[in-house]
C-alpha cells in the first residue's frame, strides 16, 4: 500500500500547478499524465522518471530550483506510486477525464487513450517485447485504439467496412464504461509475462485477418476479435 496517497485536494492542487507560468503551457494535463503513467507502470520495461518527467512537464522541468516545480515533481512521483500500487493490488484506476466542451455532456476519452498509447511507446516496442503473445496484446490494446479513432482510421484506409454510427456509438460507450478494466487487464498481461506466466485460450487462436470462425464472413478482427468482445 502506498503510505502517502494523494488526496482529492492534492490532486486539485497538482492540476493547478500544471498550469503554472513556469511550465509555459508545455505541461501535460492531469488526465494525460495519469494515462501516460498507467501505461508506464504497466509495461514490460521500467521507464525512469528522467524519461517521462520531461514529457509531462516540458522545458519548465529545467527550473528545478523553482518551488512550484519542486512541489509539482513531488506530487507527480506520488501520483506515479498511487497508480502503481492500485494496479498491483488489482484495484482498478478511475480515469481522470475532462469534458469536451462547456455542456459537460461528453468527456475526452480520446485524449486519455492517446496519452496511454504514448506512454506505452516510452517503454519500448510493446509488440516486439510481447513476443509470441503479440496478437493477444493487440487485442487488449484495441479498445484504446477505438477510443482515439486509430482503429477506425486504419479500417477505412484498408477499404474495409466500418460499423454503422449507432453500432459504433454503442461500442465506444461500452469501452468507455469498461476503461478501468481495460487498463487493469493490460497491466495484468505484462505482470503475467514478467513472472513467466502464459496467456491461456479456451479455443484455438484465430489470426486477426483470418475469416471469423463464427461464419459471419467478416475478418476475425472486425467480428468476434473486435474490442467490444474484449471487455
Chain-averaged pLDDT: 87
**Biggest sheet character:** none
Strand tally is: 0
The residue fraction in helices comes out at 40-55%
Number of helices, counting only DSSP H or I runs of 4 residues or more: 10
Shape: globular
Low-pLDDT windows of residues: 198-208, 227-231
Structure, described:
With 231 residues, this protein is mainly α. It has ten helices and no strands. Helix 1 (8-17) packs across helix 4, helix 2 packs across helix 5 (109-121) and helix 2 (30-42) packs parallel to helix 10. The two termini are 27 Å apart. Residues 198-208 and 227-231 have low confidence and may be disordered.
Summarize the structure.
The chain is built from ten helices and no strands. The chain is an all-alpha fold and 231 residues long.
Topology:
Layout: H1 8-17, H2 30-42, H3 49-57, H4 67-88, H5 109-121, H6 126-130, H7 134-147, H8 150-157, H9 165-177, H10 179-194
What structural keywords apply?
231 residues; mainly alpha; 53% helix; 0% strand; globular
